[in-house]
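Side project, low priority. Logging it here so it doesn't get lost.
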Amino acid sequence: MTRPTQERALRTREALMHAAAEVFDEYGYAGAGINRILERAGVTAGALYFHFKSKEGLAVAIMGAQPQQIESKLTSHGLQRLVDITFVWAHELQVNPLLRAGVRLSVEQGSFGVHDASSYLGWREIMAECLQVAEDEGELLPGAHTEDIAEFLVGACTGIQLYSQLVSARRDLPERTVRMWRMLLPGIAPSETIARIDLDVRRGEGT
């Protein structure tokens, strides 16, 4: 493809992703009809099937796009970066339909015949990398197991966002995320490290 054609195809793909995310977020997978997605995106069925083989393929792509919504907003490293990932995630879940749809679809995927742990495993890997940097820089307690901590965090974040969604439509998710860290940090980091960690939840609005 020529460059203008490639750019047009990329814009079409992004329009489809964002439109589908809005529809999945509002209606769930079952209620997200193809025609509704096409109307929201302003494209033809041919354009959709050029980029995605099926509605299921579109849903899987949205599930896999979650880290892109977070990591581009980060500038910190080590343990602070890990904290900031969760703060940005908590904020973006309130304002970003693409991330919300990815999370919703990851949780509900069994209902439409998909059993893809990639999004959870991807987050575990990202978090483990942050923890490995933290360990290398002496920010963790001796004997801390980075893979175990990362896996626990993925589960903890999944749980608190579901709970927050039910009790407050996620309005209190940032504050719940801070409380999670206040309970977790003493178990993984020495006091001198904890003193350096910024737990101002507003970091999630623009780290």
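Brief comment: The mean pLDDT is 91.
Revisit when time allows.
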